[in-house]
Amino acid sequence: MPSRVPDFHRPPAVERVFGRVLIFLVRIGLVGGHFYVLEVRGRKTGKTVSLPVDPLDIDGKRYLVCPRGESNWVRNARSVGEVMLARALHRRRYAVRELPPGSRPPILKAYLDRYAGEVQRFFPVPKGSPPEAFTELASHYPVFELEPLEEAGAPSATAPD
Question: Which CATH number fits domain 33-148: 2.30.110.10, 1.10.1420.10, 3.40.50.880, 3.20.20.140?
Fold first, then answer.
């Protein structure tokens, strides 16, 4: 039985500073790999919030998982209904569709298996656990499926994969 999962893991100050540096490096293309910058409009202020994320591509679909739980970006994405992923001067808008908890376990497993070095500390089950191990945990980890949006009247700005 997994231990209780907090509703939100607030990053310490050092991680917030590192995140800002990482955002800058990803935006200018010095850091690539699996990192993207997530941009989402604030539901209260309307200001754009940016943070580094690890999108997950499975069977031709792209997902965002929040290993920290009910974060501000999650609440903003729910409210606004769309996000932007940016990397190396490329940006792409996506509509977001939150998956119900019953659909999350295989995505959570794939996410943890792929990014365990960065996110294992947020999960009370180890990398390599079966999807069933995530069933009780699924409601604590928001998962969004991303659907690309085309800009009306403008060429598509695609982010390289």
Answer: 2.30.110.10
Query: pLDDT, tens digit, for every residue of 132-153?
Result: 999 999 999 999 999 999 754 3
Sequence-ordered strand ranges (E) for the chain:
36-41, 48-53, 56-58, 61-65, 82-87, 90-98, 143-148
Give the separation between CA 21 and CA 16, rounded to whole angstroms: 9
pLDDT digits (tens, 9 = 90+) for 102-124: 999 999 999 999 999 999 999 99
CA distance 89 to 109: 31
